[in-house]
Design brief:
Structural class: alpha/beta
Shape: globular
Radius of gyration: 17 Å
Helix content: 25-40%
Strand content: 15-25%
Strand order of the largest sheet: 1-10-9-6-2-3-5
Number of helices: 8
Order of helices and strands: EHEHEEHEHEEHEHEHEH
Number of strands: 10
Largest sheet: 7 strands, parallel
Length: about 240
């Protein structure tokens, strides 16, 4: 696992964007696995700038997202489809017909069947990841066991707490999500995690020992042959990590 320490959030976003740009330029019809949350926003902003100002071409790119809240329509301003449109897709020349974010409303079992069918066909070149304070990847929450394929997940109280800031009240935060399974994530050719903010425990478990545990799904990154972690220096310093 390669670890890149960035002096600032902005530098980390640029370094992560470099990895995506290299793939897109070398393989214009690549498949990107994308993530939501605050961690990749800077990277998306930088990719949009490079598309507009430097000709980075996303016209042949396909994407599939990690997850979506159950119960939110795509037009809801906290849905992950809305997030992706607002933070990336509306600002690059990607064909939105080639972008997939699982549906969180309607027949959830049918939605999961479609999600799994998409994932079975997808050959993800890079999977972008953030990490939850409790170490979840996508919405694969800590527990006794993890799922291989896409599934409906019950969100932990800590996850609900962490996401409350995006909603009018805690009661408005969805209690369920549909998410890629750990197997889907691990089958990507490359993993790219951006980690910053209040993630000390997850970062410590990922970077400061060799333990792999379902109580911190992020630790499964250690099993991947081509995994990159971009971590902000302030967070690395808090956990005592040195490159």
């Amino acid at each position: 696992m390669k670890v890149i320490i960035a002096d600032t959030y902005e530098q980390g976003a640029s370094l992560a964007a470099d990895i995506i740009e290299e793939l897109v330029r070398n393989k214009p019809d690549c498949t990107l696995g994308l993530a939501t949350g605050s961690s990749p926003v800077g990277m998306y902003k930088e990719l949009a700038r490079r598309c507009k100002e430097e000709g980075l071409d996303f016209s042949k790119v396909t994407s599939v997202n990690l997850d979506e809240y159950v119960g939110l329509e795509p037009t809801h301003d906290q849905s992950y489809r809305f997030f992706m449109n607002d933070n990336l897709f509306d600002h690059i020349n990607i064909d939105k017909k080639n972008t997939y974010v699982a549906k969180g409303t309607g027949d959830i079992e049918a939605n999961l069947k479609e999600f799994n069918e998409i994932l079975d066909k997808a050959d993800i070149d890079i999977q972008v990841l953030g990490v939850g304070p409790d170490g979840h990847l996508g919405f694969n929450e800590p527990g006794e066991a993890l799922y291989d394929g896409a599934h409906k997940e019950v969100l932990d109280e800590s996850t609900i707490d962490a996401n409350t800031r995006f909603f009018a009240s805690r009661d408005d935060v969805p209690r369920y999500a549909v998410t890629m399974g750990m197997g889907n994530i691990m089958r990507a050719k490359k993993l790219l995690m951006i980690i910053n903010g209040n993630k000390e425990d997850a970062a410590r478990q990922l970077l400061m020992n060799d333990r792999i545990t379902t109580s911190c799904p992020a630790t499964f990154m250690k099993l991947h042959r081509d995994a990159v972690v971009v971590i902000e220096k302030s967070l690395a310093d808090k956990i005592g990590y040195k490159a």
